[in-house]
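Troubleshooting: if your tokenizer reports a length mismatch, compare your output against this known-good record of 295 residues.
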Amino acid sequence: MYRRAYIFLIVATLCWGGNAVAGKLAIGHISPMLLTFWRWAFATVIIFAISIPDLRRDWPVIRLNLPLLAFLGLVGYVVFNAALYTAVNYTTAINVTVEQTLIPVLIFLFNFVLFRMKVSWLQIVGFALTLMGGLLTAAHGDLSTIVTLSVNFGDAVMMIAIVAYAVYTVALRFRPAISWRSLMAIPALFALLGSIPAAAWEYSADRMIWPDANGWIIAVYTAVFASLIAQVLYIRGVEEIGANRAGLFINLVPVFGTLLSVIVLGENLQAFHIVALVLALGGIAIAEWGKPAQR
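Known-good structure output:
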């Protein structure tokens, strides 16, 4: 009955899972900040091309909410992706994808602290398991490295990306009543503008790598598949089965990311990766099952 929605959501999370792999493939072909810039340059052109009627209709509301929309674009799009593309230069794509299971934990924590959302003991247990999985991955299977603060630099940078996306997700509760096209277009524009200083810094630090043929392909992939197609399909899935049920499919991102890292990049799937995935996904499932009843 909901087969089409399931297909939409699976393809969306597959595209998102490939984002870390794309970042890893970009090494030596295009630098992280320049990849972030071109990703949002291409995405902004495409989304604006299909959003003009919506933007005209929504402009009065957009104008009143420009600071919030700018924040969404800068934090959720620029900081997250720039940190992710930097992180894969120092750690594996598998680590980067598995560590993203920490995002639901932080969303839960921020919502609890800021908005006093109701919480059950099963949710606490579930998110504790997910946290253990994420930390196990960041520590490369040796949790003692957390105590001694000797975590790999790339995994530490990925924590910045995770916090940024959690903040972005929580901030979405304040999104204005505009169409989904407008909600994608305006933050994408601010993401493009925000990525310019980052690219300029990269150039001034003599770290910029202008894209070769492979670099352009990777930039187009991140713009078309990871930015636009994935988001559109996710929105369609939400429309058909609701946000709560659709949200569970996001847990497939680390699964697909891990599989793609092994298949495409030839990275080694180690025992602690499997344990971390079981802990993280099992914890999220327990938390979802044990959530308080909604009135």
